[in-house]
C-alpha cells in the first residue's frame, strides 16, 4: 500500500471551510480507490495559489516529502498546488524526479500533457478573473465607493445599498466614508500645525503629550503623522489604482506606484475633513522644507541632521526634540543611529589631497 498525503487550499474569503471539506472528501475517495494510505493532511486557508511563498502548510509538505514520509500527494485539482503554470510544473517535476513522490489530482487525468494543459487553463482563468475584479473595483472607485480595507483615520465606513443583487438575490452593498466627529479635529490639528511650520516629529510628540489615541491605538510616530499628511482622502477625494501589487520570486508581496495617468481620481466622493486652505498651507510648508533641505539647511523631515565641515570633521550630531527647548543628545546609542554612515576624517583628508589643485594654487 502506498503512503500518501492530501493537500487542500482555498484562496479567498469568498471560499470557506465547505470548500476544504469538499476537497478533502474527494481526495479521500480517490485514495480509497487507489489503495493509498493517508498519512498526513495539509491545509492552507485563505492563500492564493499564484506562488508557493507564504503557504506554510505547502512548505511543510515539501519538507516532509523530501524526507520520505510519503510517496504520493493527492490534491483536489492540480491548480491547488499552484495556479502559476511554471511554479506548479516545477514543483511537480521536482517531487516526481528528485524525491520519487507521485502527484495526483482527485478529479483530473494524470497524463503529463493533459495535466500541463489544465494548469495552463487554470493560470489563464486566474489572470482573467483578476482583470475582471480590477475593472469592477475601478468602476466602484469612479462612483466614489470604497474598495475594501480599513477607512482612513478620521472616517468611518458606512454601507449603502447599490441597487443591485448578486446571483443569490442578496443586495450588493457599497461602502462610503462619513466623518468621525471625534477623530476629524485631530486630523485638522495635524494639518494646521504642519502648515504653521512644525515638523512631523514635533506634531507626533505633542499628540502623545496630550494623550491623543493614534490610528493604531498606540503612540504617535512619524509614520502615523506622515500617513495623514497629503492623503487625498481628507480632501474628500477617492484615489484608486495608485499602486499595483507585485509578487517577488520568494512569493512575498510588494507594491509599485503606477504612473499618475493611470490613477482614478474622484473628487467629492465623501465629505472632506481638510479644506483647501489647510491643504494648501501644508503643501506650501512641505515645499519650504524641501527648498531648505536642497539648500543645505538640513535633512528630510524626521531625519537626524549631520553637520560636517569641508574636511569631513563631524562637528555635531543632534536631534531636535519637540517642545519649547532643544536638547543636544550626546549618546549616539540612545539615538539608535543604525544606518548613518559618516566618512572617517583620515579618509576624507586623503581624498582631499588627491584632488588636483587649481592653476596657480600649488
From TrEMBL:
Q: Which domain of life is it from?
A: Bacteria
InterPro entries under this entry? DNA_bind_recomb_sf, DNA_bind_recombinase_dom, Resolv_N, Resolvase-like_N_sf, SSR_resolvase
Record's compositionally biased regions (Basic residues) = 344-355
Which residues belong to any copy of the Recombinase domain?
152-292
Q: Which Gene3D superfamilies match?
A: Putative Large Serine Recombinase, Chain B, Domain 2, Resolvase, N-terminal catalytic domain
Query: Which residue intervals define the domain Resolvase/invertase-type recombinase catalytic in the entry?
Result: 3-148
Which GO molecular function annotations are given, in alphabetical order? DNA binding; DNA strand exchange activity
- Give the signal peptide range: none
Renumbered to this chain, region (Disordered) spans: 284-305, 343-362
Q: Can you name this protein?
A: Resolvase/invertase-type recombinase catalytic domain-containing protein
Q: What is the lineage of its organism?
A: Bacteria, Candidatus Handelsmaniibacteriota
Amino acid at each position: 500500500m502506498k503512503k500518501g498525503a492530501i493537500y487542500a487550499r482555498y484562496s479567498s474569503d469568498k471560499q470557506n471551510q465547505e470548500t476544504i471539506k469538499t476537497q478533502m472528501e474527494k481526495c479521500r475517495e480517490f485514495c480509497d480507490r487507489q489503495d493509498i494510505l493517508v498519512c498526513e493532511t495539509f491545509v492552507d486557508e485563505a492563500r492564493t495559489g499564484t506562488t508557493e511563498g507564504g503557504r506554510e502548510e505547502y512548505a511543510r509538505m515539501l519538507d516532509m516529502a523530501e524526507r520520505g514520509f510519503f510517496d504520493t500527494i493527492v490534491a483536489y485539482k492540480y491548480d491547488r498546488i499552484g495556479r502559476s503554470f511554471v511554479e506548479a510544473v516545477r514543483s511537480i517535476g521536482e517531487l516526481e524526479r528528485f524525491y520519487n513522490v507521485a502527484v495526483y489530482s482527485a478529479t483530473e487525468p494524470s497524463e503529463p500533457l493533459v495535466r500541463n494543459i489544465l494548469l495552463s487553463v487554470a493560470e489563464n482563468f486566474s489572470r482573467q478573473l483578476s482583470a475582471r475584479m480590477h475593472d469592477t473595483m475601478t468602476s466602484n472607485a469612479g462612483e466614489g465607493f470604497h474598495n475594501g480595507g480599513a477607512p482612513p483615520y478620521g472616517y468611518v465606513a458606512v454601507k449603502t445599498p447599490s441597487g443591485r443583487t448578486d446571483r443569490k438575490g442578496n443586495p450588493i452593498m457599497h461602502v462610503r466614508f462619513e466623518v468621525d466627529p471625534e477623530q476629524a479635529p485631530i486630523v485638522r490639528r495635524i494639518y494646521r500645525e504642519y502648515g504653521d511650520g512644525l515638523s512631523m516629529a514635533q506634531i507626533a510628540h505633542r499628540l502623545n503629550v496630550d494623550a491623543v489615541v493614534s490610528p493604531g491605538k498606540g503612540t504617535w510616530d512619524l509614520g502615523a503623522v506622515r500617513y495623514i499628511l497629503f492623503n487625498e482622502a481628507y480632501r474628500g477625494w477617492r484615489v484608486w489604482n495608485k499602486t499595483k501589487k507585485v509578487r517577488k520570486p520568494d512569493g512575498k508581496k510588494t507594491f509599485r506606484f503606477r504612473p499618475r495617468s493611470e490613477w482614478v481620481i474622484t473628487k467629492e466622493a465623501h465629505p472632506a475633513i481638510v479644506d483647501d486652505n489647510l491643504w494648501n498651507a501644508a503643501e506650501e510648508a512641505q515645499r519650504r522644507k524641501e527648498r531648505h533641505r536642497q539648500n543645505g539647511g538640513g535633512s528630510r523631515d524626521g531625519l537626524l541632521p549631520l553637520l560636517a565641515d569641508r574636511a569631513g570633521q563631524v562637528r555635531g550630531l543632534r536631534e531636535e526634540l519637540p517642545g519649547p527647548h532643544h536638547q543636544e543628545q550626546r549618546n549616539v546609542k540612545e539615538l539608535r543611529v543604525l544606518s548613518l554612515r559618516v566618512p572617517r576624517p583620515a579618509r576624507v583628508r586623503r581624498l582631499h589631497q588627491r584632488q588636483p589643485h587649481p592653476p596657480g594654487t600649488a
